[in-house]
Structure formats: structure tokens, C-alpha cells
Design brief:
It is a single chain. This protein is mostly helical. 86% of the residues lie in helices and 0% in strands. The protein has one domain. α2 runs antiparallel to α7 and α8 packs antiparallel against α9. About 4% of the residues have low confidence.
Amino acid sequence: MLKHIAIGGGLAFAAAVQPGPLQAYLLSRVAAIGWRRTLPASLAPLLSDGPIALLALLILGRLSPVAQAVLRTAGGVLLLYLAQRAFRNWRANGPDSQEKREKAPRTLLEATLVNILNPNPYLGWSLVLGPVVVAAWRESPGEGVAVVVAFYATMVTMLAASIFAFGSARLLGRKLQRILLLVSALILASLGVYQLVMGVQSLNTGR
């Protein structure tokens, strides 16, 4: 049991500390509306990964190149939209009145959508976590459950810690808040362009 808990937790830690679309989005939300309203978004993987895990385990294989390309392209468009909003807030010298009134459920919904359109959970479940869970389940159902619980407990904890850390930095002043907004906008835009280009290239190749 401890072995599989360590495996699940280790995989989640490695995934959480790597920059990606979800992490960039959370940074932009903390800079815009604060860490308290952003904190529920740390639960996004619990909402988005259920269907992804089911899909990966049911098909027992990789997503087709065309499906990956469509997913990557859609994710790129979403990230560019989020980057544009963060950049607009930066130009306005901070969050506008609508951003300040924004509620946590919207942020959680958007974070879930970002993760659904991110190819990494699909590839992770198909190529890494899925096979680990299947192998552990064959030893005993409890072992398989232990991997999944350890993975998502660690993932949510790491994301929540990141949100709090971003929020602590945000408290240092409005100037730093604007810098965080600009940085997050640039990261989101870069990731969006990358996913869009890769998605279009993959679609062309798939044809």
C-alpha cells in the first residue's frame, strides 16, 4: 500500500511543479481576484479528470493523433482568450471592477475547462497513471484506489499551496500585482500559441 501511495504522490508532485496551462491560469486569477477566491480552483483536477480517466481506461490506449490535435487547438484558443483578459487587466493598472466582483465558482469552472482542454491529463492517464493504476488494481482493488487517492490528494494540495504562495507575493504591493498579471498574460499567451501551432501542425500531418 505504501509503495503505491508513494508512486501516486510522486507522480502528482512532478506534474504539479511543472509550469503548464492550469498553473499559468491560477497565477493570473490570483493576481486578478486574490488567493481566497482562487483557492477553490485547486479542485479543478477532481472535476476534469474523472471523464479523462474513464476515457483513458476504457479505450486502453493513446488518443488518436487527430483527437490530440483538435484538443490542443481548442486549448490554444482558450489560453489566448485568457491571456488577452489578463493583459487587459494589466493595461488597466490592475483588475477591473468586474474582475473584483468575480465569484469563486466561475474561476473553478474556467480552471476545470483549462484542464479539460489540456492534453497533458489525457496523455498522463493513457501513458503513465492509467497503466500504474491498472497494475496496482490487479494486485488488489485497494492498491489501485490508493494510487488514485494519493495522486489527487497531492495534486490538490500542491495547487492550493501554489495559490497561497502567489497570493502571499501579491500582498507585497500593487506594483508586484501588475508584474504578476503581465507575467501570467505572457505565459498564457506563449502556451496558447504553442498549443495552437502544434495542434494545427498535427491536424495537417494527420491529413
